[in-house]
Amino acid sequence: MTTIMNQPPQDHQTYDRKKEVHEFEETKLGVKGLVDSGITELPRIFHHPPENRIPVPDLNSDSDSDPIPVIDLLGTPREEAVEKVKEACTKYGFFQIVNHGVPVSLLRRLVDAIKAFHEQPAEVRKEYYDRGTSTGCNYFSNVDLFVSKAASWRDTLQMRLGPSIIDVEAIPAICRNEILEWDKEVKQLGELLLGLFSEGLGTSIDRLKELSCLESRVMVGHYYPHCPEPEKTVGITSHADPVIFTALLQDQVGGLQVKHEDKWVDVKPIPGALVINVGDLLQIISNGKYNSVDHRVYANPLQDPRVSIAVFFNPGNREDTYGPLPELVSPEEPALYQEFKLSEFLTRFFTKELDGKSLVNFFRLKSE
Ligand code: OGA
Ligand code: NI
């Protein structure tokens, strides 16, 4: 006879999840702390419901093709680059860039520095653990820890870069120089990309820059340590970025997947490349010409940790109103989205868990 004693706990109903989440938060050591403690089974706060789990791909098979375009940014004549970027933003919402002008040696040093931050002794790391942003720099596990149904296998060092760095001294010394150098480079790269996005929409090269789309920049340095039960959880749940665009540097471990034509495809790491993706705000401003697409990261099954560094570009003024650019709206192509204040948009994002394209859909005008 099967007794109730033999049954696994009914995770999602019968335990005090809130209490266990708080206990995890109180350790101030993130999932890295759990790995260091030698756990072999995931605490149940990390168990995702079966429908949200991500099958770990067969890492020995090389057969999966990666359709995400790779663009030689500086080696392609301008007009052609505009076309390529436009096509990538329209069809995929994602592309990789090589020969982008950011020294590859800096990219390598940045990954190493962020990794070193996350691998500092527990006592040092703990000092930075904080969800507030008064210094512009903080460290935490899971941005949506208190609002999500399940936690993910990832820790993050977050840093506000723009409009300006609030306090250079608040940046952990172990990665300070690299972050400062990256800040300069990524801003310059961002300007180049915004120009290409603008021209691809048929507007003047400065159109998006004039909307202050370069001004607010937030960097996240994610650390995805080895996960002992990767099939039960995820690295980052499926979501679209609530931004103008994102520039992402990933190391060579792999794990990022993008939804393309209803299938998940791997964004294969390319040494020295950066991954660029369209955010929800650019989709809205472009009146749906560009697409922000869902992406996710599976929990890291490998012994080596995975490091990725994203910079989110957003407009500077949160109280301004945004919506489809008037010149992209016509009787033939009516506005697909309503206008809104950026602050309203961001509040909506941060009070819910990461859950895909619901945000952009919220602002979609209902067609009769
Ligand atoms: C993000 C994100 C992907 C990655 O931070 O929004 O999608 O590879 N990160 O870490
Ligand atoms: Ni993202």
SSE diagram, text form:
Blueprint: H1 11-14, H2 17-27, H3 30-36, E1 70-72, H4 78-91, E2 94-98, H5 104-118, H6 122-128, E3 137-141, E4 155-162, H7 176-200, H8 207-210, E5 216-224, E6 236-239, E7 245-250, E8 256-260, E9 263-266, E10 274-278, H9 280-285, E11 295-297, E12 306-314, E13 321-322, E14 340-341, H10 342-350, H11 358-362
Parallel strand pairs: 1-2
Antiparallel strand pairs: 2-10, 3-4, 4-5, 5-12, 6-11, 7-10, 7-12, 8-9, 8-11, 13-14
N-oxalylglycine binds at residues 220, 222, 236, 241, 248, 250, 256, 295, 297, 308, 310.
Description:
The protein is an alpha+beta fold and about 375 residues long. It has a single domain, classed as B-lactam Antibiotic, Isopenicillin N Synthase, Chain (Jelly Rolls), CATH 2.60.120.330. It is about 30% helix and about 20% strand. The chain contains eleven helices and 14 strands. The strands form three sheets. Strands 1-2-10-7-12-5-4-3 form an eight-stranded mixed β-sheet.
Which characteristics define this entry?
19% strand; 368 residues; single chain; alpha+beta; disordered N terminus; globular; binds nickel (II) ion; binds N-oxalylglycine; 8-stranded mixed sheet; 4-stranded antiparallel sheet; Jelly Rolls; 11 helices
